[in-house]
Each structure stands twice: as C-alpha cells, then as structure tokens.
Amino acid sequence: MADDFQIGIAGTFDLQNFGDLLFPLVAEAELSKRLGAVKIRPFAYAAKARPEWPFDVASVVDLPDAVADLDAMLIGSGHIVRFDKSIAPNYAPPNADVHHPTGYWLMPALMAQQHGVPVVWNAIGSYGPTPAWAEPLMRTALDESAYIAVRDEDAFNTLAPLVNGKTISRVPDTCFGVSALVDGARRSPEYEAIREALGLDEPYIFVQATNRLEAFGAFMRQHGDRLSVKKAIAVPVGLVLGDSNDQVGRLFDGLMTLSHWPSPVALAELIADARAVVGTSMHMAITALSFGAPVFRPASAWGKYAVLSQHDSVFEFPETGVIDPDWFEACLQRRGPGAKALANKLALERYWDHVASIVKRPRDTSKRANAVLSGFGPRLPFALELQADLERGLEAARADLVGALAGLEGTQQAVEAAQENARALEAAIQEFASRLEAQSLEVGRLNREAEALRARAAADAAYLAAMQKSTSWRVTAPLRWAKSRLDGSVGAESSILKFSAIAEEQLKRDPFDWAFANNVFASSDARALAQSYPHDQFKTVKGYDGEKGYEYEARALIHMGQDEIAFADGLSAQWRRLARDLLSPNYRQAVSSLTGRDLTSAPMEAYVCHFGAGAAGPARGPSREDHDPCILLQRSLGFRGWRVPQHPAFEGHERSSRGSGAHRGQHFDSRAVRHVVARGFEGEAGDGLAPQHERHILSRWRGEYNVAAG
C-alpha cells in the first residue's frame, strides 16, 4: 500500500545464514506491532526473490533510486561494521562501482542521510579496527544518525572514538525477539511437514550440521541410549559458512537429516521445539535461549559469543575430551527461559518502541538538495581507500627511488626496480584519476594530490629514462655489470684474498715468528688494486718516537673495532672487496690458524699508507721488545721492487732491480714475495721497508697483531 511505512534495512541478507535472514523478519514483525502497515525493504549486494528466497531482497545498486521513498533505514544487525574483505567465501559486490565491504552497510547509511532519511544502527556488531581513511566517513555517518545501538562491548569500543559525544545505546541482539516470528499456538505448514516426515512426535535434540562436534558424536555413540531424549536431528544453520549434512553424516547412528534447507521461520520453529540444541552458531543459541532450550557448545574463546556467557543455560563441553553423561543429562533437564533471556526481551521491547518513534517523526526534507551524493557517494570509499593506498605506495616508491639513485652506480637491478615502481605508481595514479574524473569540489583536494604524485613520478621516470639513454650510461654498462658481480648483486660474492694461502702456511720460529704465504692475490685482482689505488681521505702522520723521525700519509680503510668499511664511496670495487675480506670471519680464521692465536673477537683496524722517499715508518729496531707481528701482503700491485733490511727471512728472495742501494737492505722483485709474516724487522733507522712512493695497507688487531699488505 502507498500509505505503508517503507523501511529499508541494509546488510548481508543475500547469504544463506540463519541469523542474517532473521534480522529483516524480526524488524518487520516488531515494527508492524507498533506502526501498523510496514514494508521492510532489505538491501544487499545481490537481488533475491521469492520463492527461491524467504523474502525479496533488492541490490544496493538500486538504492539510489529507492532511498528517497524510505521512511527510515536500519543498518544491520550482525557482525556488520567491518573493513576487511573476507566476509564470506566468494562474497563480492555486484559491480566495480560498489566498494567492498562498505557498499552494503556504510554507503546505504550515508545515502539515506543525504535524503533526510533517519538512520538507525540496528544493534550492530563490529569486526576489526577502523582504518584511518574511513574515519571521516564513519564520523559523518554516526553524527547524522538518529539512533546508534550496539549489541556488545566490541562494537561499543569501535564506535565510541568516532561519535563526538553522541549517545551509543547497548541493547541485546535483536534475534532475542525471535519469538515474534513463531506462533505459539500454530506452527507453519513447512514445519509441520518436516515433523511428519521425520516422525518428530517425541522430544529431540537439535544438532547444528557443522564440524567441531567430534566429542559430542563420541558421547552419543557411547551414552546416547542412557539419555532421556532419544531422537536427534541435524540441520545446517549457515550454509555460507560451510554447514552441511556431510559434516555430521557419520557422527552417530540414528541422527536424522533434512533433504532441503528450511526457511528461517521453520528453522526457528525446529529450534524452539527442541529439548536442547548442540552447535556453535550464535543465533541458533539465541533462538534456543529465547524459547528456554538449553544450549551445548564446544568450549572456545568467546569473542563475539560473549553475549551468551551471561546465560545460565549455556553449557560448554571439551572439544576433544570426554563428556560426562550424568552432567549432560542434568543440564538437559534445565528447560525454560532464563532470567537474562527474559530481560533481553523486555529491553528489546523498549528498543523497538524507540525505533518506531523515530520512524513516525516528520522527515527532514531540507537535505534532499544534497542528493548529489546518491550517485557520487558509493564511489567515495574507493577514493579515500585508494588515496591511503597511494600514499603508502608513494612512500614505498620514494624510498625505493632514493635507494636506487644512491646505489645507481652499483647495480642495474636497482634501476630496473625503480623503473618498475615508477610505472606501477603511474598506473595507480592513472586509475585513481579516472575514478575521480566525475567527482565534485568535495574531492578536489584528492585530485590535487594525485596531480602532484603524477608530476613527481613523471619527473622520476624522465630522469631515469634520460640517464639510461645517455652515452655515459651505455659506455659504463660493462663496468656496472662487473661491479655488480663484485658487490654480490649478481651471483655469489667472490673473495679477493686467497685465505687458504695464509691459513695453510707454516709459521717459522727462528729467529722470530715469520712465514711466507704465496699466491695471495690473483694476477687480475692485483692489477686492479694497483690501478685503483685510493687517492682520497689521506692524512699526514709525522712524529718522533725517540729513535728516529718519520712522516707518511695514511687513509683509514677500517676504523678500529668497526665492522664496516671507512669512506667506502671513495674506494673501487676491488678495494671494497679487499676490505670486506679483512672484515670477514674467513680472514680472522686464516690468520688465527697461521699464528696460533684466537683472533675471532679481537678488535681490528686497517689503513692504507703512502710512504715517501726513504720513509720507513716508526722505528722497529732490536732495542724494542714490543714488536707487533705484521703481515705483508706483497702480491705484486704493479710495483717494480721493494727495499727490505738484510734478514734471514728474505734470503733466497733478493732480486735487485735497482742495484745494491745506499742502505744495508737489498732490492727484490715483489712478485717473488707473495705473503710474508714476520715478528718485526731488525734494522737501523733509515732501513726502508718501501721504495719511493710505494703504498701499504695496514690492518691491526689491538694488542695482538699488525697486518701490512703492499
């Protein structure tokens, strides 16, 4: 009739789930008692129609054309306020213009408010947090609502920070009023047909056809014949959640099943007349409690089932343990509505009285002018969620680009990743822009941010494209590839030092600790080290140690006790490889094996030296007793020769390339001395360890060893 109250209700009424299908029926029954002729108009993702469905359901895509004719809009009930996507298996919006999951609850509320239709949050539940992008929409929807009612503390705590002081009422789940659907004197024809088909002429136990009932099945197989109630019927309560006869097919002998899924009213009647119910469904339990049937459920964390914990006829049994038959029989006899169930029914009477008074209020037609949101509103969550996703993506892309640019010289893969990020970001921005083309000034701020993001991404992409087209980029491609090999980004990283040449050498004891270690470097590595000898960060070191003066230049390679390369940006790939080798456990193990001392935790430093003409460094004469052992890594770096003091350690290796010289030391070709370990060099001031402009790398373990490599 045209004079009927037209009341919308938004939720998941297109799912085969007992509780979801009860909400519109209970609302219609309660409001009809108070308002007379009432037509409840359910809205969900998918349209449904009789006789395949218990009642007609309209799709939310049709709501913009219907909302202006509504006298009120109810949201829920159920676990409806949520932002995750996993509502039910394969549950999705009817088209890409409907946001998931706000399209079936938040958007109907906002759309109704834009038309001046009062919105009632119908004893709702919630699941999960509210994301930051959705908070402005939630605040608007709650501020403009006529009545906010929640069924549990989780929902209250979810909405409380968003209501700006607006009252939130705590009310029972509306299914505690399910008795409004069941005629106490006359049952439905569908229910009577089921009773006759199954022979339900004596008390029976209603069993939810679900899993997690193995303990109950074992109990019935062993003790079922001892119970005062002999019959049991298994019925799926939520097909969408996986309930089926297959779940209980072999639970115990004599368990009856139905060949079809009954309507929600017939299902409520089956539960109402049961001697007891067994299962996990919350709304099955609420229906049983409303009619005084005891509820048996497997023990678990309460979560949303906390509403059941206040009822003294809800009994838990161990999910995997043994059920006591005497306990079960005693609980089976506790029939009749409890005090809490009766109190819930009275609270719902007051709740529906208040909802009816809201429906009867005159409509605020002044808000019809804002009906532009009817077309735009369903797309607003997309814009806000996409903006949040883009901001997160932009931060990630910016970090990727900064990292790629900083390490551009080292890896081609980083550049390609940055390009891919830029392309993905540009594609996301294009999609974002296309979705916002039809939006008004209300989302202008989002458009400006999108333009800024697009310009930044385009600039980054242009920079990368220009760089890759440059001659220097193409010319240095082989070097980048080689460097990536050395840096370990392509294949496994190789060592420049041959640790075995050090570790496997024999330490000589006479006249002090010393040894030769040959083949420490490969020839190609030696040439590369010589050609890329460092030229930065050198400092002049000069002084007088009481025996002689000295002056040389030194550059840190590894600071004392540190585990990273000093001034790595100024070093070639070969020198960074050498430094990493010195930092590696393999090097410590090799020197420990050679010297017979545990150097695994000793602090170490390494530095590069440049000695001038005749420089010998701090004197290490025989009068000093604190000689640090030193390792001379003297695989040729392209130097012609070395000047060393006369000493048995070098006998047989003297190959003069410049004559005898003015000092006691002789010259020998560095290619003949691959790796020398000595306790110190006994010589007079002026005995040189290096010819003019020769260079050294020194690494030292404090209080333990000095290591010098040429």
From TrEMBL:
It comes from the Bacteria. Residues 408-456 form a coiled coil. InterPro entries: Polysacch_pyruvyl_Trfase. Residues 17-296 form the Polysaccharide pyruvyl transferase domain. Residues 649-669 are annotated as: Disordered. Transmembrane segments: none annotated. One of its GO terms (molecular function) is transferase activity. Pfam families: PS_pyruv_trans. Keywords: Coiled coil, Transferase. This is Polysaccharide pyruvyl transferase. The lineage of its organism: Bacteria, Pseudomonadati, Pseudomonadota, Alphaproteobacteria, Caulobacterales.
